[in-house]
Amino acid sequence: MSAPIIFLSCYWLISLLCIGFLLFVPVFTIIVLVDLERDHLNPVEMCRIINRLILPEYVVQGLTVILLLFFQCWLELVPSLSLLAYHSYLYLHGKHRFDPLRVYKGYELKTAKRRQILKFFGYVICFIPLAYRMTNLTLQTLRKHEIDPVSYTHLTLPTKRI
């Protein structure tokens, strides 16, 4: 039993928005960490900026996992569940927030950048099958309604007679 096409389209749109946000957070965090490394930011401001994004990232990750479970997208669920388990571990052990003192002493800077890069690639792994399935659904819908997605026959260039 497949869900109606409207629900699937809404699902793909919401999932793409969620994954887009989740791809943005690690990239933004890496940029802020590099700014700290080059003394464009102080550690207190850097921690304030990054700590504001942590809980929304976890909530969006949880929403993404719930959507993937509901629509039974098992391929995308595996990396999403592993990232959710990692986020849960950090949250339950109180390691999800950045501490200005530890960042100032340089304990967390390199490991934080590595973690953000790994999270980014985890989100990319979630995004690729999602984009493939959404494109496949769109093409199937267009074929079902007999619409040619690449029809440029109505566009003709004027020819110049010599």
Characterization of the model:
The structure is a single chain. The chain is an all-alpha fold and 162 residues long. It is 75% helix and 0% strand. It has 5 helices and no strands. The protein has helices spanning 5-37, 43-70, 74-92, 100-104, 109-144. Helix 1 packs antiparallel against helix 5 (109-144), helix 2 (43-70) packs across helix 3 (74-92) and helix 3 (74-92) runs antiparallel to helix 5 (109-144).
Blueprint (SSEs and pairs):
Elements: H1 5-37, H2 43-70, H3 74-92, H4 100-104, H5 109-144
Total strands: the figure is 0
Strand residue content: under 5%
Shape, please? flat
Characterize the biggest β-sheet.
none
Instruction: Note poorly predicted spans.
Output: none
> How much helix, percentage-wise, in residues?
over 70%
Structural class of the helices, strands and pairings? mainly alpha
Radius of gyration, in angstroms, nearest whole number: 22 Å
What distance lies between the first and last C-alpha atoms, to the nearest angstrom?
A: 62 Å
H/E element sequence: HHHHH
Number of contiguous helices: 5
Outline of the structure:
75% of the residues lie in helices and 0% in strands. It has helices at 5-37, 43-70, 74-92, 100-104, 109-144. The chain is flat and about 65 Å long.
Salient structural properties:
162 residues, mainly alpha, 5 helices, 75% helix
